[in-house]
Design a protein that fits this description.
By secondary structure, the protein is of the alpha+beta class. It has 14 helices and 20 strands. The strands form five sheets. Strands 16-13-15-14-18-19-17-20 form an eight-stranded antiparallel sheet, with helices on both faces. α7 runs antiparallel to α8 (275-285).
Length: 439
């Protein structure tokens, strides 16, 4: 069981510490056959079933009072197919292990999110993504899936085999079955050059379309209570490798982003009035830097400061207006926001419940330090996001329900019909799925 997502006396807790559950039983099957048997037994006993990864979701998407399945024994690479440039990996494999194993084989995913603690199935089932002009979420790189369905049978799907299941199950929210293996498209290992550079918010908003168009991967962080951002542009590079120096890397990534940032969060929690001053200092503490390395060392970074998060995808064309409205709301509100707001993009994809389904999207993520009241900020931010038909990340806090999703996802009905077929008795149901998918 992951140390970040376990608890005493059979209580399970998520990474953010905001969700807990007391399952009747917990299981860690060592094979697909064992997992299928656990599912069949739960069904006979009238218990619901959920699988949980490392607990990195802030929603209760994996919580259950029935049977909680931990996939930590279902890990590792099954096969690498160099002819079709795919890799098939067990569902419980952590992304960091996948990334390191692929790099040893001279391979890489095309794009990834900014942390790699999660399991491959947990990350894809909730729609985890990074930022990209042409390359989409981790789920958008899936070429095949294997899942155990409610009757305990093993179903495989791809564009050719069970294509209707494939269209939905890549981001399945755990509602269609328990994913046991995933086949990803991979490519030969490449180098990325990252340029991180502070920039005034006004300039970033004025030039956003241009920066998006000129860079393969563009993202920025805006520091509330300031007009400052830190931008990051990642582009493919012919080399040579020039990793971040160990001392500089430790200072920027560990000391500033985790150490000093942690202390600043403690101070801000104890004395909220100090937050704007801290924000001004933090937003100026990071200096410009450029480095070149293999993808996972550029895309991902450690996150040791615990927080809670809400993130919405809005149409990319609506990003600048949405962010201006968010800033105006914060400036007006008297709220004290100590965490930067993260902005990323993704191209439209063809997955039924992907936040980028059928539309080019921009993501705006708001965070609060764990233990500080986040309700007022998140509620006000959500009002801004939903005015632009925003779609919340399935693993991050939001208050939306099935009625709302039926409006903002053109293929919502396609997903719920498939669920009716694969799980008519709602074996994989929990409170969260009841809310977001309807009873």
């Amino acid at each position: 069981m992951s140390s970040t997502a376990s608890g005493k006396n059979g209580t399970w807790r998520n990474w953010g510490g905001n969700v807990s559950a007391r399952p009747a039983r917990q299981a860690a099957p060592a094979s697909v056959e064992e997992l299928a048997a656990v599912v069949r037994r739960a069904r006979e006993d009238g218990l619901k079933v959920k699988a949980v990864g490392t607990g990195h979701s802030f929603t209760s998407i994996a919580a259950t009072d029935g049977v909680l399945i931990h996939p930590q024994l279902l890990t590792g690479i099954r096969t690498i197919d160099r002819a079709s440039m795919t890799v098939t990996v067990e569902a419980g494999t952590p992304l960091k292990r996948l990334n390191a194993a692929l790099a040893r084989e001279g391979l890489s995913l095309t794009n990834m999110g900014d942390i790699m603690e999660q399991t491959v199935s947990g990350a894809t089932s909730t729609g985890t993504h990074g930022t990209g002009r042409e390359s989409g979420s981790i789920a958008a790189q899936i070429k095949g899936l294997e899942l155990v369905t409610a009757d305990g049978s093993v179903l495989t799907c791809s564009e050719k085999e069970n294509p209707d299941v494939f269209a939905a199950a890549r981001i399945g929210l755990g509602a269609l079955g328990i994913v046991t293996a995933i086949t990803f498209a991979v490519e030969p290992l490449f180098l990325l050059t990252a340029r991180e550079e502070p920039m005034p918010l006004e300039r970033v908003l004025a030039e956003f379309d241009q920066m998006w168009a000129e860079n393969e991967h563009f993202e920025f962080y805006w520091f509330p209570h300031t007009g400052n951002t830190n931008t990051k542009r990642n582009n493919r590079s012919a080399g040579p490798e020039q990793p971040v120096g160990q001392v500089a890397g430790w200072f920027e990534d560990e000391f500033l982003s985790n150490g000093v940032f942690q202390v600043a969060q403690w101070v801000g929690r104890a004395a909220p009035a100090t937050i704007p001053a801290i924000a001004r200092i933090s937003s100026k503490a990071l200096s410009a830097r450029t480095y070149t390395d293999i993808p996972y060392k550029v895309f991902t970074s450690p996150r040791r400061v615990r927080f809670v998060e809400m993130e919405y995808a809005v149409p990319r064309a609506a990003l600048v207006d949405t962010l201006r409205e968010l800033k105006a709301m914060v400036d007006r509100s008297g709220l004290r926001v100590s965490f930067p707001v993260e902005v990323r993009t993704a191209p439209a994809d063809d997955i039924a419940l992907s936040t980028a389904s059928g539309r080019d999207s921009a993501y705006i993520a708001v965070h609060m330090f764990r233990g500080t009241p986040h309700q007022a900020y998140f509620t006000a931010a959500e009002r801004v996001f939903t005015a632009h038909e925003g779609r919340p990340h399935w693993g991050k806090l939001h208050t939306r329900d099935a009625e709302y999703f039926a409006r903002v996802y053109p293929r919502f009905g396609e997903f719920t019909e498939l669920r009716d077929r694969l799980d008519p008795e709602r074996l994989f149901q929990n409170d969260y799925l009841r809310r977001v998918l309807g009873a």
